[in-house]
Amino acid sequence: MSRLLIVHHTPSPACQEMFEAVVSGATDPEIEGVEVIRRAALAVTASDFLDADGYLLGTPANLGYISGALKHAFDVSYYQILDSTQGRPFGLYLHGNQGTEGAVRAVDSITSGLGWTKAAEYVIVSGSPSKDDREACWELGATVAAGLMAG
């Protein structure tokens, strides 16, 4: 069975809506053989990353950057997972009220350094998530999870 690790920082109602939509897509009953693990960014460990086959990252954009919680998740595990997780797929959902470019750049930099593979277009939402935004989050979760199904 494959494992999909969702690493998230969910401090606001908008982030919570996006997180729930991503989880709903990733756990769709049509996706078989994929265990979905959810970890708060401040609680995730290097072992969680090592035990997973793919990743979904969720963060608000704070002051034009990823949340301190998601940054911390990578700070404490980066070198422990560097050689062992290359080539693994990932996706990103991001909520910001303004200025998300720096957060996207940070995720691109971190995941490029790790050698991860972007498995789907990022979902970037400003303001309250709309129905279309929630559907895009659902699709993100489903796409990354489906990519891990045993072929």
From TrEMBL:
UniProt-listed Pfam families: FMN_red
Gene3D superfamilies: 3.40.50.360
Superkingdom of source: Bacteria
Residues in NADPH-dependent FMN reductase-like domain copies: 48-126
InterPro entries: Flavoprotein-like_sf, FMN_Rdtase-like_dom
Record-linked SUPFAM superfamilies: Flavoproteins
Name the UniProt record assigns to this protein: NADPH-dependent FMN reductase-like domain-containing protein
Organism: Gordonia terrae NBRC 100016
